């Protein structure tokens, strides 16, 4: 039996031997042992690899027949295979014997333990049978004695029961006769609760037997004492010197004495109103102008502990005392709580409004959390009063105001950055020293704005923290994240930044005239950087921090990027116009203030042309700090000499030939107009691309077009024409390298000289070699 029990324990038991050495080997040995004893045919069949469990030639099958197996081997296998089978079978038998011995050794302790357990069970069962027999005998004796006692005391039991009933009745009568004196004593001692309980116990009996004279006298005395008791309770209740629990006890006793509940309800609410109004007055005093206002967290704690705690006590006591009033009583309590709660909310909003100027939201959010958390209890008690909803609305309004405040803060920070840039651009000129480069200023502005945006996001993210009680409200899970933070704060600031930048693109006579051109260039690059990377980064950061669950439509990233790119384009275009206007003003004044008819023979290049080249070079350096070079058309190897060759071409020689006759102007006009028909049209205000070459090309086109129009309005003498010829050649020597297509400069300067020739009565050009010498010397 012990062996069977040990075997039946199966492979699931944990033997005490070295189990970790060969688990596969142990499981195999257990399966063989079960197969050997025939205890689990299903498992043995599971180990068999044969397809048919009834096959008599299957060594692992339950129906194995040695004779059939040997006959099959002798018929099918040669001698060598028979010898190999014998060798293999001997090896398997030895391995099986070894495994079985190992299994027995490993479970030896279990076999011994199972044998001892069975032996002890036999001894214990013999003792238990003897004890059960003795118990049955004792129970029979006890039952016999109980029956004999019950039969003997039957008559006495009935008499005792009658006497006990009479005794109880006498005690009740004694209580009734002593009731007036007991009530008087309780009233004198102030034990009003005990007196009311005495009255409640005797009320029904006195009412039932009031037709008997003795009981009628007791009832009259009790009514007089009860009236005096009710008067004292009312006096104590109306004095209001005790706390809310004591007053609630007074009302409960008065209700137990049969006082009208409607009247007590009104008095209870009136006394509660007085106490709560004192709390409100205390809070309002703290908001006064003379004493310093307490910390917002301290203010909400005082309001929560004082007013809100008192309101909860009043609501709980009212519902417990006047539950029989039904819906009418509930409506009175709801109106009472709604009125006082509204006054409390006004005070809280006044205090919260004082915190709107700060930049840190941590203290404000903690105060709102405690304010909202404390109002959940009265909100649950008085659902009809709508206190929780009103508290949530206040928190939402504060959150919206904080978003608006942070938006204004971001706008102010952006304007402050622009002011710093203006000062940095003006300071070097005032001090006469080198200031920070535009690239450094751009990096400072971009990093400053981005840090302010991240700080604002971290600040408003406190409203959605998991530990905040109102963060699970629908508004803070949806609208606050999508429409408030993303659209109102981030998108609103980006659009405000673009609008502020575009405001610098006003007409020169207004705001734009005071804007430094370098600021326009910096803002255009800033908006372009926002379009390429910053907007996408900021919105992705916002969406990750504020998991938007609202399905309201939001502004796509592509739309904001398009707006930023358009702003950058407008700023860069305005920069080109402003810089072109500056150079144009110099050229216009130089043309209008000179007497070209009486000009001396040119000996050098005018100073204004040198200033134009210097300013253009400075602009080239300035733009190159923020924008890439751009693409230029292939340039000829003699670009610096091109102007001279143009003036010495056959067309120009024919125009300025010594054989000039009075009919020549008409022929010259006709020739010039015909040439314009076949020349490429120059768009002076063409769109500016985001590269240095395009910007410089636009500025030079505006400047040279201004020079052309000014020349057309003046009349030139011979030397005046030659001076224009020298100036244009000097400009050609330097300006061709700044534009995308050098032919553009050639055409415009050619038009300038041609227009001067048309406005000259004696158009005799200077020799090209002389022009070249003067320009090289200048």
Automatic annotation (TrEMBL):
Keywords annotated in UniProt: Coiled coil, Endosome, Golgi apparatus, Lipid transport, Protein transport, Transport
Alphabetical list of Pfam families matching this protein: VPS51_Exo84_N
Transport in keyword set: yes
Main location: Golgi
Subcellular location: Golgi apparatus, trans-Golgi network; Recycling endosome
Function field: Involved in retrograde transport from early and late endosomes to the late Golgi. The GARP complex is required for the maintenance of protein retrieval from endosomes to the TGN, acid hydrolase sorting, lysosome function, endosomal cholesterol traffic and autophagy. Acts as component of the EARP complex that is involved in endocytic recycling.
The protein's name: Vacuolar protein sorting-associated protein 51 homolog
Naturally occurring in which organism (per UniProt): Cricetulus griseus (Chinese hamster)
Gene name of the record: Vps51
